[in-house]
Design goal:
Order of helices and strands: HHHHEHHEEEHEHHHHHHH
Number of strands: 5
Low-confidence stretches: 222-255, 262-267, 269-273
CATH architecture of one domain: 3-Layer(aba) Sandwich
Strand order of the largest sheet: 2-1-3-4-5
CATH topology of one domain: Glutaredoxin
Distance between the termini: 31 Å
Shape: elongated
Bound molecules: FE2/S2 (inorganic) cluster
Helix content: 40-55%
Largest sheet: 5 strands, mixed
Structural class: mainly alpha
């Protein structure tokens, strides 16, 4: 963690004031707080000052203190506490904040810092030659599951390797930072397991306890359709058909309907489990003999080692094969893998097309990031 002090006098401008648009915004923001609580606007105002000038100057701190009728030292405390506030001029295109706290450090943050040192400047907060980039080490940014990670302005980039960070820095330096999708840079949805879910991937069978409504319904004789209203003091649910008129329902029949519902859901789950498409199905994509050179299908987001082995078992070895799958074939594979639509969501065909056409370089061109 670096010591957070205001920039030396030579960097400090003579004064600060919000431009016309920000002045209107600041007044509206202050009015959002209840009478006597206007000082709560200190963080938004400092942040807006930073967005206007690129960093928080001493003059801006004095301006905010006066605007909110706060002692200067109180605003200075806020500005120097949060690493979101930059206290000296930073790179105009990117300021890389590398998390150096334990989880990120254990997962390679030191190598990311080495990249910053070699590509930007040996020392934190120093600008590169063109003044477009700077970096610093910060404490935990709350994305430890996806360590190591960096922040650039308000976005985080996670699960990074040194090569990926080099790529990100180059894109920002070229003014094309928006090409990089924030968040995990590997096959991971937010902070879910890398490579796809590993638990709760099968339909869940409802738990049936002895004497539960579901168990009672199952143990009861074959249902007989009747529209009669059961006595209010009925000890057990009656065995009406589920479509009994809702107007005639009593709490007892509601219970029974809920139990039926559970049973139906369970049956559906059983059916879903048994509905793995047949290997003889006409929509099964054509397989090939294992070629001498197989493609690394794991480069496709959504394919891990296990799925790759399953695909190989189906005779799928090349990106080109996947790139030509028609809708029915995609649905067959999706059902076979029990993926619940993931092949479409991850757009395997588009990924495979890019990889078949030009490998990693083409993938980066199409998706703005490296394949996993
Ligand atoms: S330790 Fe790096 S984000 Fe938490």
């Amino acid at each position: 963690m670096s010591v957070r002090r205001l920039a030396e006098e030579q960097f400090q401008p003579a004064g600060f004031s919000f431009n016309a648009e920000n002045a209107v915004w600041a007044d509206a923001t202050i009015r959002k707080y209840p009478e006597g609580r206007q000082q709560s606007a200190v963080i938004p105002l400092l942040m807006r000052a930073q967005e206007q000038d690129g960093w928080v100057t001493k003059a801006a701190i004095e301006f905010v203190a006066e605007k909110l009728d706060m002692p200067y030292i109180r605003v200075l405390e806020v500005a120097t506490f949060y690493t979101q506030f930059q206290l000296r001029p930073i790179g105009t295109r990117a300021h890389i904040q590398v998390c150096g706290t334990t989880p990120c450090m254990l997962r390679g943050a030191e190598d990311l810092i080495k990249v910053c040192k070699s590509k930007i400047h040996h020392d934190p907060f120093e600008l590169n030659e063109s003044g477009t980039l700077s970096w610093e080490e910060v404490e935990c940014q709350g994305a430890c599951v996806n360590a190591p990670m960096i922040m650039i302005f308000k976005d985080s980039y996670e699960d990074l390797t040194p090569t990926q960070l080099e790529h990100i820095i180059d894109r920002f330096d070229a003014g094309k930072g928006s090409d990089i999708k924030p968040g995990p840079q590997i096959d991971r949805v937010f902070s879910a397991a890398a490579g796809g879910p590993t638990a709760l991937i099968e339909p869940i069978e409802p738990i049936r306890f002895q004497d539960s409504p579901a168990a009672q319904v199952e143990a009861a004789p074959a249902p007989a359709v009747t529209a009669s209203v059961p006595p209010a003091n009925a000890a057990k649910p009656v065995t009406d058909a589920p479509e009994t008129d809702a107007k005639l329902k009593t709490p007892a029949t509601d219970k029974k309907a809920a139990a039926e519902n559970i049973k139906v859901k369970g049956d559906n789950a059983d059916t879903a489990r048994s509905e793995k498409p047949s290997l003889e199905d006409k929509n099964r994509p054509a397989g090939i003999e294992k070629p001498d050179a197989v493609d690394d299908l794991k480069m496709i987001s959504g394919v891990g080692p296990k799925i790759e082995a399953t695909l190989n078992g189906l005779g799928i070895y090349k990106f080109e094969q996947i790139s030509k799958w028609k809708k029915a074939e995609r649905e067959w594979v999706d059902g076979y893998l029990k993926f619940s639509g993931r092949i479409e969501r991850d757009d395997w065909v588009k990924q495979a097309k890019a990889l078949a056409k030009g490998g990693e370089a083409e993938y980066i061109k199409v998706f703005g990031k490296k394949p996993r």
